[in-house]
Amino acid sequence: MDIPERIETGMQRALRYATANGCPPILARALRHAVFPGGARIRPRLCLAVAAACGDREPGAADCAAIAIELLHCASLVHDDMPCFDNALQRRGAPSVHAQFGEEIALLVGDGLIVAAFETVARETQQTPLLTAPLIATIANAVGTPYGLVAGQAWESEPEINITAYHRAKTASLFSGAVSTGAIAAGGNPRDWLGLADALGAAYQVADDLYDAAGGQNDGAGKPAGQDSRNGKPNIVTSIGLEAALDRLKRLVAEAVDNVPDCPGADTFRAMIRNEATRLMPKTLATTAA
Amino acid sequence: MDIPERIETGMQRALRYATANGCPPILARALRHAVFPGGARIRPRLCLAVAAACGDREPGAADCAAIAIELLHCASLVHDDMPCFDNALQRRGAPSVHAQFGEEIALLVGDGLIVAAFETVARETQQTPLLTAPLIATIANAVGTPYGLVAGQAWESEPEINITAYHRAKTASLFSGAVSTGAIAAGGNPRDWLGLADALGAAYQVADDLYDAAGGQNDGAGKPAGQDSRNGKPNIVTSIGLEAALDRLKRLVAEAVDNVPDCPGADTFRAMIRNEATRLMPKTLATTAA
């Protein structure tokens, strides 16, 4: 199976467990709505690409880490779309979970997907028990408090935002988690991959801000353009301008490529990042920046 | 250390990690508000009592399972109190998390505590790696979908409630998880403890309904009396009457005692349950039912 197929197969399997016979029917439908059809599945693709670059010693462990990370990303989108945050009615061209199923169900879908993420890792690493705790600790660190996604979102409620901590926690942490777990699952050293993870996480944050400012649908996030400024959120294009933001994106992608450590699949991995970079950019800007 | 001290020490330790230096300050305060001071800590006490009855072979593993279960219980209270569910302004005699910190922070506190629960198990079982996956899978099963807490809450959004599935998922599942993880951590067989877990979970559901109907503060849940009927939720006292509900509680406690399996600490454990049963009952009813 190629990487996209491994991801969709794994997501289907995780959702079969989460919505098994006996699940309240509306919750089951809403869980599926939150996860299928997916966006670009950038984070799990990154996780599996790192695992492949390191030799993919335990593909089952890499798969479940990738799936857990994508389930957590979906959970964060469902909760972020809720009225008390972005109040977004659309996601990936369809109604957001709370718009379609109500706030109660949206809250529970997010909670259920968080639990399903950790359950997936526990279930799928029974043959590789020495990987269970490191994978779960790494993933939890990327999504929880004090430094993960949850903390990133919480910075928006502070009277003074620590912008570096905010971006690192809200966007970079899950990229970093994807890279680290890919390395861990394949017996690589996650420390060797930290420079790459930081650069890629920052690049994705800039790309996301470019989408928001320039318009067009971002495959990864799937949120409507202009939402940041409507919600008064920090956006790099507003602070430094479009040209400078595009420059920064190019520099960050080059930095990511430079930071790929020595490993069996380093060249393939570098090519993948360059390719991904074009994909990350809004189509209207891709020619200017390529 | 005795059981209550092990629990409070473990909760403090888990919260030190979750609110470590760099955590957004409001989120850190709200996380602590959700967890301290605690209620009766019934579920973690049960977990550690089962582990003790089985010989407590790996006290560190039992501790982290107990802490994870209590963190998840606290998370569920924070989310249940939110406006889209119970809209409760009070919890354990203090403002609920959303009343004090706003809806955004309450949503994130719940998410953060769910993550912290699994992170705690992963962090604290590094010396006992064969226990990590079974503990996390058991806990996730008790709180997630299709059969755990999240599913239980979701039944309230269905046009037709499956009452048995609802009570089992909403209340009994976490008791069952507490009992099972206590046994697993101590090398016991969780299957031997299922009868006890079922009876205790059902007893607690009846006790909770009695509190709601009879008034008085329930140490465990800490929710104001009469909330179920105001929110149109099923309550056993409304369906079968006060006397019959008290009878059922007594029968369930006796059933729990009868279902304690052979193990080194069976007698102490039976005495603990009888003692707990008195504690479970509203003070105004305790003399009638004892």
Task: Please provide a written account of the structure.
Chains A, B: It comes from Peteryoungia aggregata LMG 23059. The structure is a homodimer of 290-residue chains. Chain A has 290 residues and is mostly helical. The first copy, chain A, has one domain (3-289): Farnesyl Diphosphate Synthase (Orthogonal Bundle), CATH 1.10.600.10. In chain A, 70% of the residues lie in helices and 1% in strands. Chain A contains 15 helices and two strands. In chain A, strands 1-2 form a two-stranded antiparallel sheet. In chain A, helix 1 (3-18) packs across helix 6, helix 4 (59-80) runs antiparallel to helix 9 (163-185) and helix 8 (149-155) runs antiparallel to helix 9 (163-185). The interface between A and B is large, with 61 and 61 residues.
Summary keywords:
two-stranded antiparallel sheet; 15 helices; Farnesyl Diphosphate Synthase; 1% strand; mainly alpha; globular; homodimer; 290 residues; EC 2.5.1.10 (chains A, B)
